[in-house]
Fold:
Amino acid sequence: MKLKIIMLLLIGVITSVQAQNSGSISGKVLEKATNSPISYATIAVKEEGKTIASGVTDDKGDFNIKNIPLKNYLLEIQYIGFKSYKANLYFNESKKEYTFKVALEEEATQLKGVNIVSERSTIEQKIDRKVITVGKDLTTAGASASDIMNNIPSVNVDQDGKLSLRGNSNVRVLIDGRPSNIDPAQLLKQIPSTSIKKIELITNPSAKYNPEGMSGIINIVLHKNANTGFNGNFNAGITFGETAKYNNSLDLNYKVGKVNFFGTAGRNFGVYANGGQINRLDRDLTQGIDVTSDNDSHLYKIGMDYYINDHNTISFYTNQNSFDGFTNVNTDINYGVGTTNGFQKSKYDNKNNNNTYNLAYKHLFKKEGHTLDVEGNYNDFKQPQTAYFDSKNINNVESSIYNDYIKDARKNSTINVDYVNPLNEKTTFEAGAEARITRTTNDYATENPLIVPAQRASNYTYDIDIYSAYVTFGQKFKKFSYQLGARFESYKVQANLNHNQYKFDDDYITLYPSAYFTYNLNENNTFQFSYSRRVDRPSLEQTKPIREFSTPLTTSLGNPELRPQFTNSVEINYTKLFGKSTFTAGVYVRSINDQISRTLKPDDSDPTNQKQIMTYANFDRNTAYGFEMSANYKATKWLDVQPSIDFSSIKQQGIVFIIDPVTNASTAIDKKIDANSFNARLNANFKANKRLSFLLFGFYRGPVDGIQNNSHDMYKMDAGTRYTLLDNKMTLSLRFNDIFDTMKYAFDATNPYPQNGEFTWESQTVYFGLSYNFGGGKNKSLQRKQREDNTNKGGGGMF
Structure:
């Protein structure tokens, strides 16, 4: 025992002596013209031309390199498009620390245009989010953002394109830190995968974020193009499934003097097929569903940034998105031998136009990091739909042909102010205010002869007024840092059906606190604790008492009296760095009040007791917990792997109906279950040479029990390759998705009727993509405010 104590003391003394006999350098790197921080600048400490220590600047331009032997060195700071900075370092017993504040100047000559994209994706745990930097291995996953999301730890995309995070679908999707006002399932299919720079998983957002999204926020950060001169990027891809689907985009940028002009045009189009079968087990009844969708979407963006002077910048842009989709749904109902079968042919003609206009002003005070941002955003969204139904011989009823007409319209206006003041090197104060005004209308009309004339038309409005203000205060010490925050919010909603036939109002003021604590055990080991309060508010689709979709046996309706559900969340995360590899792990617990859940009940208007109504309801409370682990392991120079697993358990509660087989009477019961979800992923990259590489991807999702349905397990394997040429300006990608055609969604259910089913989609596909960068220019990024996460972003990009 004494020997162990002596050894520990000796090791401590040696470590202390080593620390005392070494030096360190720290500082900040800025862009001289705009005084903006430069991220990912290279810091190198050299001795006779050989690098003995190195690092890169973080998002704020800061760097810190320790344990440098006490000798004489040359410090070199480099960033593409800027002049290098060099300084001599003379370490000795009396001079062990150097601190720099470096302002890099632009090069006088133009550089060739280049889009730097890493070969492999990386995962980094920051104070309030997990950041996945998208490399070429992920962009090879497919044409769109939707194709690569299932490759991201803790994220799942179902057969309809709907996202879930940690097993929960109450997740908010942002593009460059701003709401897109487009349905996420549709939006992700429209963003080319090659346009994505990184994906941020904010599972426990702080008070400076809007509090919507119970399971967190997924922020998709797009590549920014703000180079001096004229330059651009072209992407094109084709996906071969049952039919071919196409995607292409063109980004152009021209910067001269104080003005930066940027524009983007993109298009995704093709025919998508999926379908399935639902079987009733208590009677001879089978429902087959076949769906084909012919979709065509266009996205345009045009804007400009004007640098008034070194301290003031103004920016304007507009996004224009149009979507045209035509969907055929054929439903066959087989009632068994000796009975009349049913058939319904449905056609949905969907169109939408989504127009956004944004004006922003940024002021940089003389003190570094001291900023003021003012931003106004207006969004106008219109979505008309014509639905055609042709039902024949349903329960011996003759043919019924009619149309439904739905028109959704939404206007969203937002004004916000954000202020950041670094009180000193260790302390930062932030504050902001925001007003959001949303006006939504839904008009519905039907020609269905089975509905009484008085109920064949309706008008539904859903108006929301939100006023909020937040403050955060944070301090950073050597090994410990914290951030405390609170958001005060006034929320008012008014729902009105058929001009005061039915009204619903809700008005409340809520406090949303947050807290983050980070402890750096050493340079390679970091622990983090966080707490936040969130809200998931009912959407228009969940509240409108008008059909969302309909089949001969199922109709989906909203519930206008839904209340918001509130969540208190606690997380603990750990990050380990070893060499060029990383390991992250985390556990979380959530308490959810007034949970919003789907319910499935018999249609009381159906005397045959075959039809069902899907709607929503609030339930008292539930809890959720889970863990996740992921790694980015560089095994050799030619092989790296990224394994990840995540587990979540949610106590769910809902109403189900039990049918008496003798009397056909239904009884409502309160059902509680533990929904456990397990996912595993493995991404492996093999680098044959500087130009050619291969990848393998495996995915497994375990079975999940639900209130209504129990989902079966799913799994698949993908393989791909990519090749670069023309001095890395062009990249060719090829990927074979779901090689063994194993991805299928199967389920079984007990209530209200015993049934099972299986749905398939075009999971087995071959994708070929091309990306080409052209033009020239020096990188000069405009540091515009990202509204949702209070970080900076450059001009240009898609959204």
About this structure: Residues 13-19, 108-117, 777-799 have pLDDT under 50 and may be disordered. The chain has five helices and 45 strands. The first helix runs from residue 2 to 20.
